[in-house]
Design brief:
CATH superfamily of the largest domain: Lactate dehydrogenase/glycoside hydrolase, family 4, C-terminal
CATH topology of the largest domain: L-2-Hydroxyisocaproate Dehydrogenase, Chain A, domain 2
Largest sheet: 6 strands, parallel
CATH class of the largest domain: Alpha Beta
Radius of gyration: 18 Å
Helix content: 40-55%
Number of strands: 14
Distance between the termini: 38 Å
Number of helices: 9
Shape: globular
Order of helices and strands: EHEHHEEHEHEHEEEEEHHEEEH
Strand order of the largest sheet: 3-2-1-4-5-6
Length: 307
């Protein structure tokens, strides 16, 4: 079955379903343990179909058994950040959810590609691979794609150009030690370093690192959800339509930069079976040092240590 199933009927889950419907990707099932919540939200979104003109069927359920045979499963359940919290602070709260759901998802949808949208995505992506037994090529964390999207917005604002002509690349951990790669960024094919000074690029990179924290601090009560939901829809489109598009996503590492026991974002080619190919950018000594330290923190979190 080509359906996308989303586990977690909160802001990210519901809006991801809406964006997938808007893009016309495929049918969507929203699952939440709270009785009636998922059904009510998807009924509301479905009733907008005559106006918004999406054609796919949207449904809700309070039983995870209904995800059986899905092509893509999105995990968007779990605790969210409050102002002052780091993403890593959510690991203890959400790790239990992964330990419970990973074997069930693997049993019900063994051929699915799984997208982890629950924070902290890197350590939970790593934990999901361990607990599900699924290959790393079919477990993607919503990390670098979100950071890269934010970087694109800030570049477009700085240059006063359309966001759609901006390409950006951010890898590493989905945290304040993410690694922005301006030499891999461009505007209509023109490398970013030819368009902005090193000082302005450094300033925008710092803004990108704190963009998620800013949303939480300003909203006071919730993490961001429109941008993560839109990113989920992009991944769903690439999987369902076998587009083989390149996105930076968190993936369990198997020897990249010598790392084996952590998940971090790298650019990958994504098609109908998940990851088709992992791309390993050339890093400076400083960038590689940050990447390896991030890997150490993720591995420590998964093993029960502090991140």
């Amino acid at each position: 079955m080509s359906r996308v199933s989303i586990i977690g009927g909160g802001n990210v889950g519901a809006n991801a379903g809406f964006f997938i419907a808007e893009k016309g990707v495929t049918d969507v099932l929203l699952v939440d343990i709270q009785p009636g919540l998922a059904r009510g939200k998807m009924l509301d979104i479905m009733e907008a179909a005559p106006i918004r003109r999406y054609r796919n069927m949207l449904a809700g359920s309070d039983s995870i058994e209904d995800i059986k045979g899905s092509q893509l499963v999105v995990l968007a359940a779990g605790a969210i950040r409050a102002p002052g919290m780091r993403r890593e602070d959510l690991y203890t709260a959400n790790a239990g959810l992964i330990r419970s759901l990973a074997p069930q998802i693997a049993r019900l949808a063994p051929e699915a590609t799984v997208v982890i949208a629950t924070e902290p995505v890197d350590s939970l992506t790593c934990l999901f691979v361990q607990k599900s037994g699924m290959p790393r090529t079919r477990v993607l964390g919503l990390g670098g794609i979100l950071d890269s999207t934010r970087f694109r917005v800030l570049i477009s604002r700085e240059l006063n150009v359309s966001t759609e002509i901006v390409s950006a690349m951010v890898i590493g951990r989905h945290s304040d030690d993410m690694i922005c790669l301006p030499r891999y960024c461009s505007v209509s094919g023109v490398p970013l370093p030819l368009l902005l000074s090193a000082e302005r690029i450094a300033y925008i990179m710092e803004e990108t690192r704190t963009a998620g924290d800013l949303v939480v601090e300003m909203a006071k009560r919730s993490s961001s959800y429109y941008a993560p939901s839109a990113a989920v829809a992009e991944l769903a489109d690439s999987v369902h339509m076998n587009l083989n598009r390149i996105f930076p996503v968190s993936i369990q590492l198997q020897g990249e930069y010598g790392v084996e026991d952590a998940a971090l974002s790298l650019p990958v080619v994504i098609g109908e079976k998940g990851v088709v190919r992992v791309i390993v950018p050339e890093l400076t000594a400083k960038e590689k040092s940050v990447f390896l330290e991030s890997a150490r923190k993720v591995a420590a979190a998964v093993k029960g240590g502090a991140a």
